[in-house]
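Task: sequence design from structure.
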């Protein structure tokens, strides 16, 4: 459950278990022990429902609950599964110990905060085309709405040489996409110095031989500002997906201040403008929270105006929900649920119209895509140089690079016709009619 960093930890836990001689099975009914890797960053409800569902369907099977386990959720888990082993995100490497103890009738609980390198471990990939490479754990910021700092702790950057070896290993195993992940990629190396070193790390990744592309996950805008020129330069490399995820969260400076986001609206717009100027056809992804405590109608309209002006290609919209022990949960003037719901709908409707228009600009584009996901029926989903999801029908397999022509666009995707087999060069040399 949750982010790509959590997926990476699941892949490593599977790898460690397999290395220890255990068999990973595809269906719950065939298992002796079930492991659920939870996410609680957006609340506890979803995780608790999944734990309860598995426990009700398989009451006699042993269970390990792993992942983002907060102090507040522990008694709630115990009400559902008092015999479950608990290992938090810092102790994922103890998965073999947890399983062996359960088989011997003992319940392991490993919930301390430890600094374990989350690279260089054995893995079983959930998608053989995608290599997820964590570069850090924890966060350099403590936003008022977010529990990541409480769960993951302070930023802990992994040594460059371990990361580069992990990339090389993934490429050698046939991965076509390298996903650079952490809670905030922009904060990489801030625990070691006063300046982020993400751009330097990415540049070294691009020098690794092989046919692959790099996708960079979320970056706090304030860190992007501190390395923007270097980051733009590396983004121009042919091995970089032209995709950047920079969550703005609000379109009003007063609200951003209360959120403890250390940038302003103008600076966010400056980042978008610079990347669009120097990295043509880049996909801009962002996040927006509606209904943060004390947010007025006028301030919400500032967010609407920002989205209308910037026109992001991807926008993740969340209604504010208080997280225990965060500053936001202690604030007065909590926005009523019905107002948050209404604001979310208005923003969603606005973004859907923007997204459709953005996607329609791609109709007529020709170029190469990497097939990285199975679609419905006989369709496949591929990604072009701008990491656009493109649906195509045909007898393909994961990892194929093919040439396509986009024929139609919807709010959240593109449809294309197959035009022939491609090569890695086809992902660079493209024809486009974008305006």
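Answer:
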């Amino acid at each position: 459950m949750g982010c790509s960093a959590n997926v990476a930890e699941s892949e490593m836990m599977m790898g460690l278990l397999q290395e220890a001689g255990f068999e990973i099975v595809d269906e719950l009914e065939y298992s002796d022990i079930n492991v659920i890797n939870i996410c609680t960053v957006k609340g506890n409800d979803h995780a608790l429902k999944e734990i309860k569902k598995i426990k009700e369907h398989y009451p006699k099977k042993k269970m390990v609950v792993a992942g983002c386990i907060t102090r507040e959720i522990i008694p709630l888990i115990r009400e559902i599964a008092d015999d479950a082993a608990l290992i938090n995100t810092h102790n994922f490497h103890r998965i073999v110990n947890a399983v062996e103890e359960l088989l011997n009738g003992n319940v392991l609980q490993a919930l301390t905060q430890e600094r374990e390198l989350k690279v260089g471990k054995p893995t079983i990939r959930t998608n053989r085309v995608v290599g997820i490479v964590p570069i850090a754990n924890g966060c350099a910021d403590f936003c008022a709405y977010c529990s990541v700092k409480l769960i993951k702790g302070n930023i802990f950057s992994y040594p460059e040489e371990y990361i580069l070896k992990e990339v090389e290993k993934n490429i050698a195993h046939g991965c076509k996409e390298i996903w650079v992940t952490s809670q905030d990629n922009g904060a990489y190396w801030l625990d070691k110095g006063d300046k982020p070193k993400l751009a330097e790390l990415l540049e070294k990744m691009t020098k690794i031989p092989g046919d692959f592309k790099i996708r960079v996950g979320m970056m706090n805008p304030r860190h992007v500002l501190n390395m923007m020129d270097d980051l733009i330069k590396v983004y121009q490399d042919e091995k970089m997906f032209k995709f950047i995820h920079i969550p703005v969260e609000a379109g009003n400076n007063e609200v951003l201040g209360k959120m403890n986001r250390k940038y302003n609206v103008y600076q966010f717009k400056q980042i978008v403008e610079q990347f669009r100027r120097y990295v043509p056809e880049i996909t801009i992804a962002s996040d927006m929270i509606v209904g943060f405590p004390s947010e007025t109608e006028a301030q919400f309209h500032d967010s609407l105006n920002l989205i209308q002006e910037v026109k992001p290609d991807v926008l993740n919209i969340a209604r504010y929900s208080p997280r225990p022990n965060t500053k936001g949960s202690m604030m007065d003037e909590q926005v009523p649920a019905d107002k948050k719901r209404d604001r979310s709908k208005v923003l969603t409707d606005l973004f859907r119209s923007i997204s459709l228009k953005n996607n329609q600009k791609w109709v007529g584009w020709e170029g190469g895509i990497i097939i990285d996901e199975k679609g419905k029926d006989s369709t496949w989903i591929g990604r072009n140089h701008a990491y656009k999801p493109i649906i195509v029908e045909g007898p393909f397999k994961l990892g194929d690079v093919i040439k396509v022509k986009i024929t139609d666009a919807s709010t959240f995707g593109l449809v294309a016709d197959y035009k022939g087999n491609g090569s890695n060069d086809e992902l660079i040399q493209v024809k486009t009619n974008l305006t």
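The longest strand covers residues 366-374.
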